[in-house]
Each structure stands twice: as C-alpha cells, then as structure tokens.
Amino acid sequence: MSEKTVHVDEHRDDEASKLGMWLFIFTELLLFGGLFLVYSVFRVQYHEAFHQSSLELSVTLGALNTVILLISSMTIAMALTAMQKNDQKRALIFIGITLFCAALFLFNKYFEWGAKFHHGLYPGSELMALLDRGHLLYFSLYFFMTGLHALHIVIGMTLLIVCYFQVKNKKINNKDYVLLENGALYWHLVDLIWIFLFPLMYLIS
Amino acid sequence: MANNTTHTIEYKTLVKILLILLFLTFITISVTSIHLGALTVTVALLIAGAKAYLVLSNFMHLKYESLLLRILVAMVFVLFALILVITFIDYAFR
User: Fold this and answer.
1) Do residues A39 and A145 touch, judged by C-beta distance below 8 A?
2) Which of A64, A98, A124, B81 allows an S-S link to A76, with CB 3.0 to 4.6 Å?
C-alpha cells in the first residue's frame, strides 16, 4: 500500500481580501457620491446663497486639515512599506503618526463646529430655521457631509488601532500584512473624500 | 507561503507624492482666491481630480494592481459621472 501525504495549506487569499475591501470602498464612494450629487444640484439652483454661506467657513482651518490628512495618508502608506521591509518598529511609529494626525484633524473639526454651534448654527437650531432655503441647504449639507466624513475618520482610527496592536503582537508581519493593507486602503479613502469635500465646501466663490 | 504580491513603494517616492499633493493644494487655494468666475470651480475640480488620481495610483497601490481592479475602480468613477450628467440633463429639460 502506498502512503499518500496530503498537503494542506492554510486557506488564505490576499488578492480576494483586497478585492473585497475595494468592493466595500466602491459602496463608500457611491454613498458620498450621492451626497455630492445632491450638493451639485442645489449649488446650481441656489448659487448665490451657497457662495455667501461658504464665506462663513474658515479656509485656514480647512486647509490645515487638508494638509494633516495628506500627511497621514503618506505615513500610513509608509507603515505598509515598513512592514514589507520587515521593519516592525518603523511600522508602529508610522501608524502612531497617522493616528496622531487623525486625532489632530478631529481636534480642529471640534473647534470649527464648536464656533458654529456657539453662533447658534447647528442642525435643528432656531437660527437654522430662520435661514432661507439656499443657506439652509448649504449648512445642512455642510454638517451632514463633514459629519459623515468625521465618522469615517473615527472608524478609520479604530481600524488602525487594531492594526497597531496586531503589528505589535506580530499577527501582522512581513509575510502576512493584508489587514494593514486594507486598513490603509480605508484610510486613503477618507483622504480621497476630503480632497473633494475641501474645495467644494470651503473654496467656492 | 508568501501570498502577498503587493509592490513595495520606497519612502522617497511617497514623500515625492506628498510634496506634489501639498503643492496642488496650495495652487487650489490660491486659484480660488482670485476670482475667475465659472472657471474657478472647473479648475478646483480638475486639481482635485489630479490629486485623487495620485492618491489612488500611488498611496492606494493601484498602479501595481491587476488590470481588472483598475478597470473596476475606473468604472465606479464613470458610473458616478454618468449619474451626474443624466441628473443634470433631467434638470435642464424639465
């Protein structure tokens, strides 16, 4: 009787994992796409009101947050490079910087929204109810779109914190780093959305 | 079982991409502060498109991914553009 050895590989398909992440990213892009569609239609209809409302936003804070997000996007890409080079220490540092940038972004957002709230401008406030249709639509879209984006920042941070500890425990290593790749992809998505949100919300004149 | 085939992008390249992105951000802000009328939005969106392309192809490694994935990503943007155009045609001829 001949003996047969059966070779069993651990089931793992990084390509499929990444494809799955991308499919999820497509749904996210279309989610924000729908909001951008609503924004474009009303922007054309209430051109003057949208222009006036956008002047209320601080371009400096918006620009600062753009720079912060772009830097964080680079550092998370660097974390992946470090992992591929089997440099655990650097990978941890880069994920740490990314998380720090994310917190800084939210910190700025807190002040930006805080100033609006202070002036009585927030969804459901008496001031909002008094605004005409164009201004109301602009600020509703502003709060909803930047709010939804901020929620994505929080989700992204959670995902990256998980990645941080997985790298630390060597669950993510230079042979198996697809989780970090997918976490980074999500983070880049957040950056990608902001690239369009910033000029459309802050810079229209 | 080296399963991952992801291309490694050097730190230097990533820094270069970031510098271009920051430069483009700077241009967007300065262009929109001078009043070009309807052109302003077009320029701002074109620059945003260029930035998105850089992020997608470099930071998100699409440059080194399979053709299938690249086509899929492109299709999402084409789909969105179609929806946008069709919606505006609807509004224009109402």
Assistant:
1) yes
2) A98
Q: How far is A1 from chain B (nearest CA, A)?
A: 31
The verdict on a CB contact (< 8 Å) between A203 and B44 is: yes
- A21-46 pLDDT tens trace: 999 999 999 999 999 999 999 999 99
Q: Is A14 on the interface with B (CB under 8 A)?
A: yes
pLDDT tens per residue across span A67-119: 999 999 999 999 999 999 999 999 999 999 999 999 999 999 999 999 999 99
Q: Do A192 and B83 touch (CB under 8 A)?
A: no
The answer to whether residues B11 and A81 touch, using CB atoms and an 8 Å cutoff, is: yes
The reply to whether A1 falls in a domain is no
Using the predicted structure, report yes or no on whether residue B3 has a pLDDT greater than 60. no
Number of domains in chain A: 1
> Are the CB atoms for B53 and A6 separated by under 8 Å?
no
The ipTM of this complex is 0.91
CATH of the domain at A88: 1.20.120.80
| B32/A77 Cβ within 8 A | no
A 130-189 → B contacts, CB under 8 A = 175-178, 181, 184-185, 188
Burial class (CB in 10 A: 0-12, 13-18, 19+), A102: buried
How many C-beta neighbours within 10 Å does residue B64 have?
A: 13
Note whether B39 contacts A: Cβ–Cβ < 8 A. no
Range of the domain at A136: 34-202
A2 in a domain, yes or no? no
Contacts of B3 in chain A (CB under 8 A): 12-14, 175-176, 178
Share of chain B above pLDDT 70, in %: 93
CA distances from A116 to A113, A125, A153, A158 (A): 5, 11, 20, 27
- Whether A7 is in a domain gets the answer no
Q: Which of A9, A40, A70 sits opposite B22 (nearest CB)?
A: A70
